[in-house]
Write a structure and sequence with these properties.
The structure is a single chain. The chain has 18 helices and no strands. Helix 7 runs antiparallel to helix 13 and helix 11 (230-248) crosses helix 17 (380-391). The chain has 423 residues and is mainly alpha-helical. It is globular. It has helices at 3-36, 41-57, 59-69, 71-91, 95-109, 112-123, 127-155, 158-177, 181-187, 215-227, 230-248, 251-258, 276-299, 304-322, 329-356, 363-376, 380-391, 394-418. The longest helix is centred in the N-terminal third of the chain and has 34 residues, at 3-36. The chain is 78% helix and 0% strand.
Amino acid sequence: MDAAERRIVGFTAGSHGLVHTYELSIPILLTVWVGEFSTTAAALGVIVTLGYGLFGVGALPGGILVDRFGSKPLILACLTGMAGSFLAVSLAPTLPVLAVAVAIWGLTASVYHPAGLSLLSTSVDQRGTALGYHGIGGNLGIALGPLATALLLLAFDWRLVTAALALPAVAVAAYGVTVDVDAALSSADPEPGASAADGGPNGDSTGGASGDVSLSSVATDTRILIAGGFLLVFAFVTFSGLYYRTFLTFLPDVLGGLVDLQLVDPESPYADQFDAGRYLYVAVLTVGVFGQFLGGRIADRVPPERGLMALMGILSALALLFIPATGTIATFVAVSLALGVALFTVQPLSQATVAAYSPSEARGLSFGYTYVGIFGIGALGSTLAGTILTRAGPSELFVVLAIIAALGAVSATAVSRFATRRD
């Protein structure tokens, strides 16, 4: 890569990491907000569903905005909005204000994935390498963001912590302003037949803006997707998104409440701050990095939809094993980490399935719908988890998770048998 391309990769990888830093720091903060706002897990689940729902639903219009205005302005708006939303979270005096701040985060974060992936695919010749670094940035945010939040909460009030979390987004946005998209676009080697809107040499300086997207073109591409059975793929990604949110949203509280694991002397004045659930949660997210790698390797060797059939069955079995595994710390930690690996193995297999069952001319739209299913409809998992934990308990929650995974396995089977591959 030349210098301009490396700057774009650094900018997008950093932005990707921050999106997931904020996304997965929210469950850590929930452990504080329950007491701070004297509320229930069910009420907080609704608030988180609002933010996560907008994060997913906004991906589709976000992709349309990228085609209209270009990638770089949308990424800068995303970073600025996320920083502002977490600053608003730090100042929230009441639960409704907190809900508005979390909603702002979801809305502004929703544009990142279509904007970042579009910029990389149109401005860097070595796209595979660039996307690899981009994925590493996201994985670092997934693992290190919640860890940083948990560690900061040991020493500082949660309001100061959330305000401090806003600073990295400001820094990356400032760096992004200096990134020269024109230089990379002018040197990029577009695919045969690529137009300026696709990121060719005459593309817009903002990174791939075309300005000619219409409702009729979106409707036409949608009909093409439906004709090939993409609704079955959409059903699968929705179940996978529900499992993801239902499992992760209240996981720190669930982990901390099921096993009495003391990290420091119980008599220490800092004992209450060292919540074992927070750190086991971070460990679950960290091993997910290996899951991403494993999923990519599997997708290169077997049809991805067949891999998903087996994997969702494994997730269902692990959910049923979770509560019995609390009998000993060793089995509890082992099953928790296995869930982390399996959960994130789904992602590359799911993306490969979307690509296999969507035509190239509707590929961008297909991923837009995918994020609506995973992060939009899937956000209902936050409310589902909060309601179950408030009215029942962890045992019932993991039975529901097993059912969701089983439905995901059925939908993956339906994709394999009834949908039409396009690759």
